[in-house]
Amino acid sequence: MAPIRVLIVEDDPFIAMDIETAVADQLGDEAELIVVESVAKARKAAAAEPFSCALLDIDVVDGKTFEVADTLQRTGIPFAFVSGSAPQEVPKPLRQVRFLRKPFSTREIAAFVMAAIGGLPSESVA
Fold it and tell me: What is the pTM for the complete model shown?
């Protein structure tokens, strides 16, 4: 089995820790969690190796993550927005993407990641 790599783009360190903990609690040592706080660092991380899935805040320190989301979508990598922004702010080509509104439940985060990596049927992610 290929290693599980999860990208987390979040500029608030406390929220990033909550997301990281939710994913780590679900996947344990099976996953490499890459936590970055900017679009630039997300691009750099993506150049290293492909991700299994990603969780993106929309507004981060150097802009909006829509470019990263577009790249993930084009390459077929499952991702969700985890944001306090309004879903209507998402560009139309990205509006069918899963949107987890802050404040989120860690159960939602874990369920999305498990469905994205094939651990649960997608209908389990409500």
Answer: 0.91
